[in-house]
Amino acid sequence: MLVFAAETSCDETSVCIMAKNKKIYSHIIYSQEVHEQFGGVVPELASRAHLEILQSITKKAFKEASLEIKDIDIFTATCGPGLIGGLLVGSTFTKSLALGSKKPFVPVNHLEGHILSTSYNNNISFPHLVLLITGGHTQIYLLKNFQEIILLGETIDDALGEAFDKVSKLLGLPYPGGKELEAKSEEGNENFYELPRPMLGKDNYNFSFSGIKTAVNLIIKKNKIDKYFIHNMSASFQKCVTDILLQKLKNVILNLQNKNINISSFSLVGGVANNKYIKSNLSRLKHSHNVDILIPEKQMISDNAAMIAWACIKNFKNKNPDLNFKPNPRLKIHD
Ligand code: ZN
């Protein structure tokens, strides 16, 4: 069984051809650069870029794989959540391929793609926790199995990736800011600025990052912005949000333990999982709570079509082919 997948929910245009046995025949991720000059993703420009690039990378993917469209058994695309323009471009394009070759089209949820991404390169033992950190979402899930995915908590305002971008913008760093801020933090003192750590209550699994950004802004107004300030603030911000993630995971693990639900591993997924400081600090849960950290393969961390193909393959028995499925910018995990 061969699957063709397209991912166009934000500013990455990606396609993948994957076999049921996990073999990747081709996987192309095109990161749109048009947004850099605006300091953030411009939805209208993103849809246009998807439209311009999708056809050419699809041709390239089939060429690389030495396959033809008629060899594909199932077509799948991200149908939400995400920017509606991009979702429409990717799903309509893929539906037309399915229609033309008389094969089924299976809609896939972008979040499910991230959540299942670590099961591609790891054996998951249940119950399992997933911490999803991206530019659009910050969520903790409990997986009873690959179909029963329960949302335990999420951000009530900014997503973590968004907070990274906003703080780096305040510090005058170029977009996308997450990587820049991480690099600057390496030379800073992480204990230099004490930033607020909101919503750390024991039974609260939600996050709030917008107050931290406001606190950073207030400190910026009272200080001279030189390279030492940027280094120290970057390090202090990164430590603050990492402390919050770590404490939330500890709370969840201990509260579940009290209900006789023992977690032996958790997955760290989504674009912000590329951050080495966050990854290494969260991996300390192995020593403190005997909980292993699982990370997706590098090509399946930021937005990509391989995780969409994999989610389609992994949960295929629970999915209904539906050529008329309407993309939904606010699609939930169980819609
Ligand atoms: Zn994503």
In short:
The chain has 335 residues and is α/β, with parallel strands linked by helices. It is built from 10 helices and 10 strands. It has a 5-stranded mixed sheet with strand order 3-2-1-4-5, sandwiched between helices.
List the helices and strands and how they pair.
Layout: E1 2-7, E2 12-19, E3 24-31, H1 43-65, E4 74-78, H2 84-100, E5 105-108, H3 110-115, E6 128-133, E7 138-143, E8 149-154, H4 160-170, H5 177-185, H6 210-221, H7 227-258, E9 265-269, H8 276-282, H9 285-289, E10 292-294, H10 306-314
Parallel strand pairs: 1-4, 4-5, 6-9, 9-10
Antiparallel strand pairs: 1-2, 2-3, 6-7, 7-8
Helix pairs in contact: 1-2, 4-5, 4-6, 4-7, 5-7, 7-8
This protein binds zinc ion.
Please, could you describe this protein's structure?
- The chain is α/β, with parallel strands linked by helices and 335 residues long.
- It is 39% helix and 17% strand.
- It is built from ten helices and ten strands.
- The strands form two sheets. Strands 3-2-1-4-5 form a five-stranded mixed beta sheet, sandwiched between helices.
- Helix 4 runs parallel beside helix 6.
- The longest helix has 32 residues, at 227-258.
- The radius of gyration is 20 Å and the shape is globular.
- The model has no long low-confidence stretch (mean pLDDT 96).
- The structure holds zinc ion.
